[in-house]
Every structure is written in structure tokens, then in C-alpha cells.
Amino acid sequence: MSKKNKLNLTDGFPTSVQVQFHEVDAMKIVHHSHYIYWMEIARFQFAKAMMGLSFTDFEKMGVFLPVTKLESNYLQSATLDQEIVIFLKLLERDVAIATFHYDMRDKNSGQKLFEGMTEHAFVDRLDKLLLHYPEKWNEALQLIKQTNPSYIL
Question: In DSSP terms, which residues pair with 13 in a beta bridge?
Fold first, then answer.
């Protein structure tokens, strides 16, 4: 994410994680790969809580969302036992691509630790790119825009 495109995501959908022992190195600093896993946790929590859709629901619809792009900006190290809040926003697009923006902050101080973005294509069981969002996605997006408009960019 470029500096000129800094987003205020603190009014986005919140998900909390606590840094676990297996996520840190000998200096008790979180390994960079775990931030990517935390983005996944936030996406699945958002889909379940705000869209009423689980991974199984997407599978039943024959829809998959592979990651096609990932951006990460590590600002401050997270450490063992630290509580982190991940704020997520979904970028509304005209094409069947889901773009999520993430802002990870220390729960107690509010200090920003990480910002990132993932982009996902919508594909069917045969890996064919879908040109339109599934109807359930559109319905859920409209509901979110009415109930929590700050979660949508």
C-alpha cells in the first residue's frame, strides 16, 4: 500500500487475535507469515458474521476465491501474548473480484502494526473465472451497505 493511499480502516469490521507461542521466534517476535494467516482469519470472520457465508457455503455454491494478489506493509513487530485487532474493509468493485484491506493494531495502545490488502478472483469448480458475483454475494453486500456502510470502500 503506497503512502499516498493510506486508508483509515479503524471503522472496519473488527477481528481479534492474541499472539500465540508457536507464532513467535526466539526473540518473541511474530514471524511475518502469521500476518497473512491473520488476514485469512479476518476474511472468514467477516464472511460468516456479515455475509452469513462460511467456506462450506462457498463450496456448495461451487465458488472459490483464490488469492491473486497480496500486499503487506509491516510497520511494527507484534510480540508474544499481544492482543491484536484486525480491521477489515471490502472494496466494492464492478467486476467479480474481492479486494480486502486490513489494518492490524495493538488492542491496548491502538498502535498500527501492519497494513495489507488481498485480492481474490471468483472461480468455479473448473477454475473458470466468473464474470459476475454470485447472487448471495450481491445480496450480502447490499445488506452490509445498509447496516454497516463503513465496512465497504
Answer: 88
